[in-house]
Amino acid sequence: MEIPRIEDFIRYFENIRARTRRVLACIPPESIEWRPRPGRFSFGDLIRHIGATERYMWAENALGHPSRYPGHGPELADGYDAVMEFLERMHAESIEIFWSLSPDELRRPCTTVAGTTLPTWKWLRAMVEHEVHHRGQIYCMLGILGVPAPPLYGLTEPEIRERSRPLEEPVLLRGA
């Protein structure tokens, strides 16, 4: 799916970020630096990573600049409130940069931190996939801690199953 206009992308991305924010709000403040095992990302690391990559890698590359990713450690933001504020600040700065991109700039090739060249709109689409990947990790980590998290699209898996047609009923295939 090509992204021809930045306003369409930003509307889509803000919906993605709203779902991420709902999950982040479930993290117990005292667990912000909890990690599932030594050497793995903590909740705080993941949140700082999402924010720092959005601003200093994805946005910089979209402008045609090299990555300036500073890492994901507590030196960027320490403590629950600071971590959440860091994410919001990085997002606001990134959105301001994204708004500046014209349709021609969205189609312009950009070079990623890995040295790959692709249209800028594809790079921005990859940023969304990156966030969704890490949001899934946060869901998993909350599950390990036994912390309830909101269903992604308003329904839980049991509710979806309850509202679905039983498998015993025939399913018509296209062209059949």
SSE layout and pairing:
Layout: H1 6-24, H2 43-62, H3 80-99, H4 103-107, E1 109-111, E2 117-119, H5 120-145, H6 157-162
Antiparallel strand pairs: 1-2
Helix pairs in contact: 1-5, 2-3, 2-5
Structural class: mainly alpha
Strand sequence of the main sheet, in spatial order?
A: 1-2
The average pLDDT is: 94
Q: Which stretches are low in confidence, meaning pLDDT under 50 for 5 or more residues running?
A: none
Q: Examine the coordinates and then state which fold CATH places here, giving the name of the CATH topology.
A: Four Helix Bundle (Hemerythrin (Met), subunit A)
Tell how many strands the DSSP assignment holds: 2
Please identify which CATH superfamily we are dealing with. Answer: dinb family like domain
Describe the structure concisely.
The chain has 176 residues and is mainly alpha-helical.
